[in-house]
Amino acid sequence: MKKRDFLLIAAVLAVAFVIFIIMNVFVKKPGDNVVVKVDGKEYGTYPLSNDTEIVIDNAYGKNVLVIEAGKCYMKDADCRDGICVRHRPIDRSGDTIICLPHKLVAEITAGADSNPNEEIDATTR
After folding, report:
1. E strand or H helix at 22, and its extent?
2. Under 8 Å between Cβ of 46 and 56
3. CATH topology of domain 33-112
4. CA 14 to CA 77: how far, in whole Å?
5. In degrees, to the nearest 5, what angle opens at C-alpha 15 toward C-alphas 10 and 20?
6. Bridge partner list, 56
7. Are the CB atoms for 105 and 37 separated by under 8 Å?
């Protein structure tokens, strides 16, 4: 590889890093609720402002979701891989924790008073 190839790669990585920072710091808004879905059906909606522990026990398995200090994380799951338990705490609108073996999705959403057009992406406009 030549020197210009390395410069091109460095430029692309720098642009990607800047876009990543802009998306995570300026575009994503703090969430108000966590919506839990099991097998595509809503299990419950919980405010991030109330510290609580939610036990989700169904035919697929058992998960324990904790809401604490405006963030939520998966404290425990009886699935084999435990990837959801190792996921970082989430608190921004659009962030998700997914447990595939248990068909569970926990997604942070903005409140009902937010702009409904925020949930429409560029492909649906």
Report:
1. helix 3-22
2. no
3. mini-chromosome maintenance (MCM) complex, domain 2 (2.60.320)
4. 38
5. 125
6. 63
7. yes
